[in-house]
Amino acid sequence: MDISSLLSPQDSPAAETPPPPSMPSPSLLHVQSPSKRALRQMPSRTPSGLAQQITSSPQQFHEPPPPATSHAQALYQQHHVSAMASPGMAGYTNGRVHSATSTPPLFEKPAHDARMTPPHPLHRQASGMDTLADLASMQHVQQAARHQSVGPRPSISLQNIPRTISGGSDVSMAEPSPKPPRTFNSNALDTVNLEALNQLEQALADNPFDYYSHLSFIGILHQGLQTFLYSDDGSVPTSTYELLPALREAYEAMDSKYALGERLWEYRLNDEKALARTLEQRMNIIELLQKATQEEPYSAKLWVMYGDYMTYLISCAWEPNSPENWSEEDRTLGKELFTTDLLMDTWQRGAEFVKSNVSDSSLVWDRYLQLLQDDLDRHFSPDRVRRVAAIFGERLGHPHATWDNTLSMFSTFNSRYSQSNYEAIMEHAVSQNAHIKKTYALRQEFEFNLDKAVEAGDQAAEYYAMTRYLKWEKKTIGVSSFHIVNALYERATVRFPVDPALWEDHVEFLIWQNNRSVSLLDVLERATRHCPWSGSLWSHRILTLEAEEKDYDEIERVKHTATNTGMLEHTDLEELIKLQIAWCGYLRRKAFDAPKATEDDADIAEVGIRSALEHALATGIKKYGKDWAGDPKYRLERIHIKFWTQRGSIPEARQVWESLVPQQEDSYDFWYRYYIWEMVLWSNQAVRDKTNAGQTLLTPERATAVLEKGMKRLTTIDQPEPLLEMYVNHCEQHESVLKVRSAFIEHRRSALIISVRRGKEAAQAAKESESVAEGVKRKREEETDEDIITKKSKQTESSETIPTMASVEAPRQASESPSTHSATQKRDREHTSVIVRNLPADVTKIRIRQFFTDAGIVINITTKSEADSTTATVEFATPEETEYAVALEPKADQFKTAQPVTIRRGESTTLYVTNYPAHADETYLRNLLCPYGEILDVRFPSLKFDTQRRFCYVQFSNENEAVAATALDGQNVEGLRLSAKISDPRGKKKREGATEEGREVYVYHIPFTMKKNDIENELLADLGTVEHINLPTIPAGKNKGNNKGFCFVSLTSKADAEKAVQELDGKRVWGMNIKAEVAKPKGAMGPKIRSEVRNTATPDPGTDNAGTPDEHGHTQTDPDVPASVSDRTLALLNIPDTVNDARIATLVSPFNYKKITLMPKNAGAIVEFQDVVSVGKAGLALDGVEIAPGRKINVGTVAELKQAKAEYRSDKGFATSKGGGKTKGAEKKGKEKDVAATKPAYLPSPRVNRPVARGGSTLRGRGKPGLGHRSRPVNTDNEQNAAKSNADFRAMLLGKKTDADASGAAKEVKQSTSNNGQGDAEMVE
């Protein structure tokens, strides 16, 4: 190539290695933009003959060095005998081997993630595949013919990619004919998925970089193939699947732009294995497996797939009873290709890569060790025994989760081959590796959190657990734990392959450790393959190549590869600039800092730096418009200035400085840098020596002129004071007396200008502050006198604390204090939260968390979807961190939204609401408060520590709306005086009242017929002034109006209360000895962790309902023997711990309930009904009812409820569950429902394999009937003995005319509860 090849990749005519040929997408066709113009070619100031000498070389990739093979394994390979008659795969039948006709797992559509935005495949040759060369050479001719028939694929350039900017390329290519749009038809997919395919096809034609469209497109096609394979009875060839060509083309299209990653490689490999029917097709799978393990070398799952498939092929080629019938020709050729040497090499390479993976390495190592022992059984020798024992010893020296199992395998091995010395060997193994078990024990909690998140399918929780794990590992890294930390980074990048932050952390860790056993270049190569849009990773790669002294061609090729993807400018221009900085810095250092630098190197740097500048400018103009002024930090220009300065071309360098003045004239940083540069140049003439003896030293006139230019911008420059100070100091130090005097005058004049400017700015700030103060004052003025009265000590409702009231029973007086748990504030959301608006509609919580990482610790994130955007509430650990978060608003333009992203503090936007009706849920409160503004969130407290809590926090979108909603404070809502105030945990005061002050007396064992007047006249007449008597009474039933046997008496002083206790305790009244004591605050009595509600309006069981005949004339129970409590009781599971007993009562009220026992610590409630029929009706009606968004009730037994565990909420914002109120059976049932609800539409229902009894449906176990089995009577009456369906049972229980009301009520319950999450939307409409 000539010198023009140093331009941006689109400007260079240098030949590039084309990507694998495929049918070009219509969106990838080369279209010459009419706005393109030829780049201005500036001639080199120092021309040379370089233009005729530089040539391009083919692309090279860095092969990762094979993992260091242990000494024991090297010895094993050295003595391994490859020639054998038949490999004889021992244990194959019970092994995990994938058949060519087996069905791979169904495609799971991954959630959209900020890290998943991920193009050229890596070409690396792995060892151990030399034996495949013969067959591979047979395929080259066929592949070449296919490639020629398809035609050359145009390279991805910035001109033919939608929404991608070019650097002004003049390269013209033949325009291939546009590919006509396809219409997808297949019996394996329904019309909805077929329509989705057509839409995704159009989306990819418009934007081939749409990662999620690629993902969804492959997912639907993959699922269609799975459906086709499930329905295939063997008569139709699998290759006749109509969409198979489209599926393979989709895989290739995505592979050409993005790394597939572990998951998609698994899907692709399983698809191809299910379709393989010829030896050539099976060899293609081997090549794909090799490529997959090259791209994801630390994926234990892919190595297991590789080894299992090799095992399968060897069995088919060698075993007489092979799992698949091959032709004799295939078997003969297969015996030449597939040997145990090749299998051993595969498992060994996989074991070496994953050996430091403490979690998943056993997947590979267990198979590898078993294969070694099987080989030892076939070819026994003492040397082999010693070598296998050494490999066992090496494995035991690495921490891993199944260390005990490995020790057990080693024990079995020694008991067979080293019986005489068994005990000594095992004792040595245990004592020598005692620290290994401790090493894993330290990580066990982190591994448990990871496994829990993976099992729950919570990607956010998994990412959080992984990052915490990595942080701990780096903090506690020891001398011997480098490989463990590196393996954890590899696990993280396998699980989250398109998160640039993880890759950058990994790279920085390797640079920090400087451990040569891990190839940094290999990590960077995989990083840029997975994240080709990350300029930071590409710059790291170029810098590492330079640091390792790679040649120019290789570094240039990497740079062109980065820009050829089109990803850098497609994502963010900042990423392109990062790459160009690394590239231009390399060119400059190569031209002047390298020991063997030549004039040709300077020519290359001159053209390359200028090209990078023009490319960045052209890209910015096309991306942001013609008014784009360039990089505000002028980083490339500074490199250009440095280049000209080092080359001695000072006028050219000064010309670059002057060209920056129009864009940077209001930046103090710019003038400072310009001034310092001029002073450095002048310093060469500032020292007196022999050459200038007797001459007048020149003053730094140019530096002075630079400062004087900056002084003209004092009214607009960002920092005028330091510029003025620098000018005066400069003149005092370096200028003549006249200039110094002039500087003093200028200082006085400029100081006045700055003073006027600052005064205007202060006035504007005061005006803005006044408007804020007026808002606060207006809010305070809206407080009524009644609000002030409520703050007194003997208030009836505390406005400063969080009150806790009984949820269904009559509330106690406000003199009670809240429980200890509720009074303790662990978090201050009101002062540690920010509200972020105008985020992209598809933004994820992980992306938001990444953006605010620099601000501090993000505790929790809640999002609300708007019409075309998302509003998020982000909670931090401290109020100071919210200040930093608000300061990040200028950086929020990286979200690239139509409206600018705003970040505001959440202070005074949350309303504290209490004393609302006990049955009120989120929908009720949203409907009540929505007229005052937009509600972002409603938070209820957990009841598992106190069931009497009844308050909530309602967050509005801004302060004005929250203040407006306080108008409801004091309003009557269903007979209750509602409290609605701005939440302020800092202003919370200790609750005051009669109980806290010790002047309330608790009197009990009083006669049930005593009235309040009787108590006041007969008990309290001589005991001082009585303020209040609280005498609870029975509201209904035959004892209606009687007291409950106790009362609370409030006196005026603590002394009067103590005197009353002395007088009343033990006093005999109306034939009873009453008891008295000073009432204790609720906190001192301990929280109420369960509550009961009794339905006194219903009749007693066994009297009114016992013996009620059904529609067939049969009685349900014996009238004289009422049903037992256990028969009349059921349990409601999976109840959120924020739901109180009043809401449960509302649900079960149509079903004649007797008592409700709320058990929030078990995430459920026990409901006792009046009769068995009501139990059946309630169970059918309530099972699956959505009581809260995303939470459906499970009906079970009391025993199941008592085994359930409470919900667990992490303070770090990741909600997890320790059981979620589900027992094992109920949890499994709920999980199946959740999977069905979240599964993509194109996935068919999973096949359920239920075990059946052997020998017929009436037998169980080993041909015997199960416990409680009752034989069916033989009867020819089909009508009466026919099997009944679920509908028949429902008709029996709910179909009676007398029960029509109850059935209708059940339907209303389901409808009302299922609409809980839609109340706000309906209200807005």
UniProtKB/TrEMBL annotation:
Residues 832-908, 909-985, 999-1081 form the RRM domain. This is U4/U6 snRNA-associated-splicing factor PRP24. It is found in: Nucleus. Its main location: nucleus. The keyword RNA-binding applies. InterPro entries: HAT, Nucleotide-bd_a/b_plait_sf, RBD_domain_sf, RRM_dom, RRM_occluded, TPR-like_helical_dom_sf. It comes from Lophiostoma macrostomum CBS 122681. Residues 1261-1272 have a biased composition (Basic residues). CDD domains: RRM_SF (cd00590). Residues 1-73, 86-126, 138-186, 764-833, 1081-1123, 1212-1325 are annotated as: Disordered. One of its GO terms (molecular function) is RNA binding. Functions as a recycling factor of the spliceosome, a machinery that forms on each precursor-messenger RNA (pre-mRNA) and catalyzes the removal of introns. Chaperones the re-annealing of U4 and U6 snRNAs (small nuclear RNAs) released from previous rounds of splicing, an initial step in reforming the U4/U6-U5 tri-snRNP (small nuclear ribonucleoprotein) that can reassemble into another spliceosome complex; this step involves binding U6 and facilitating the unwinding of the U6 internal stem loop, followed by base-pairing of U6 to U4. One of its GO terms (cellular component) is U6 snRNP.
